[in-house]
Design goal:
The complex is a heterodimer. In chain A, 0% of the residues lie in helices and 48% in strands. By secondary structure, chain A is mainly beta. Chain A contains no helices and eleven strands. Helices cover 0% and strands 57% of the residues of chain B. In chain B, the strands form two sheets. In chain B, strands 2, 4, 5, 9, 10 and 11 form a six-stranded mixed beta sheet that branches. Chain B has a five-stranded antiparallel beta sheet with strand order 1-3-8-7-6, with no helix packed on it. The N and C termini of chain B lie far apart (37 Å). Chain B is globular. Classes of the chains: A mainly beta, B mainly beta.
């Protein structure tokens, strides 16, 4: 079946611009996660949705970052006033509800802020 | 101190060699443990979960030592296709399903 999909695969923007990154989880997965991976590092947790609500947003670095999942399926990560330090690969994952269910990752969106 | 620490490598080994990766975690409340594999410019994929009793999946063996807060991965008879970055991953108790990743250990298997 279809895995997690993310669009765009690459995004180049200028400092100060607004960007939206989209994640389409595996059908039926109620849990959705956003991670950010910088070069040479492991992924870092940003936010976790259970259904439509953000169950844990403790990883969002500041108030320029916001994510929504209005219908409990597709999620959008929004970054305002982008900075060069926001450049990274943004990974989305989904899983069935319940603790320790395997998280399946999408291919990521590579964001470059010039 | 990082929550999950790994030697970044790279580990360059000949085909057929046995190689071991180690990982330590700082939070004693950690509940679940995993090894993920990540190929260059690809997404991470679950390799195996790690249990206190130790577990094996073909050429791969994972061990957990809760007292020492130490996790290991052993790869026997390594193949060229094993070349990748291996990420040690921890899930804190009460942390929902939020995963904490190490920086990864890079493995290169050579002819």
């Amino acid at each position: 079946g279809a895995g997690v999909s993310q669009t765009p695969s690459n995004k180049v923007t200028e400092k100060g611009k607004y960007v939206e990154l989209r994640c389409d989880p595996i059908s039926g997965h109620t849990a959705l996660y956003w991670y950010r991976q910088s070069l040479g590092q492991g992924p870092e947790f940003l936010i976790y949705f259970q259904g439509t609500g953000a169950a844990d947003d403790s990883g969002l670095p500041n108030d320029r970052f916001f994510a929504v999942r209005p219908e409990g399926s597709v999620s959008t990560l929004k970054i305002q006033r982008t900075e060069r330090g926001d450049s990274a690969v943004y990974l989305c994952a989904s899983s069935q509800s319940g603790l320790n269910n395997e998280q399946f990752f999408g291919p990521g969106t590579r964001l470059t802020v010039l | 101190r990082k929550e999950v620490e790994q030697d970044p490598g790279p580990f360059n080994v000949p085909e057929g060699a046995t190689v071991a990766f180690n990982c330590t975690y700082s939070n004693s409340a950690s509940q679940s443990f995993f090894w993920y594999r990540q190929d260059c410019r690809k997404e991470p994929k679950l390799l195996m979960s790690v249990y206190s009793s130790g577990n094996e999946d073909g050429r791969f063996t994972a061990q957990l030592n809760r007292a020492s807060q130490y996790i290991s991965l052993l790869i026997r008879d390594s193949k060229l296709s094993d070349s990748a970055t291996y990420l040690c991953v921890v899930n804190l108790a009460g942390g929902g399903n939020k995963l904490t990743f190490g920086t990864g250990t890079q493995l290169k298997v050579e002819l």
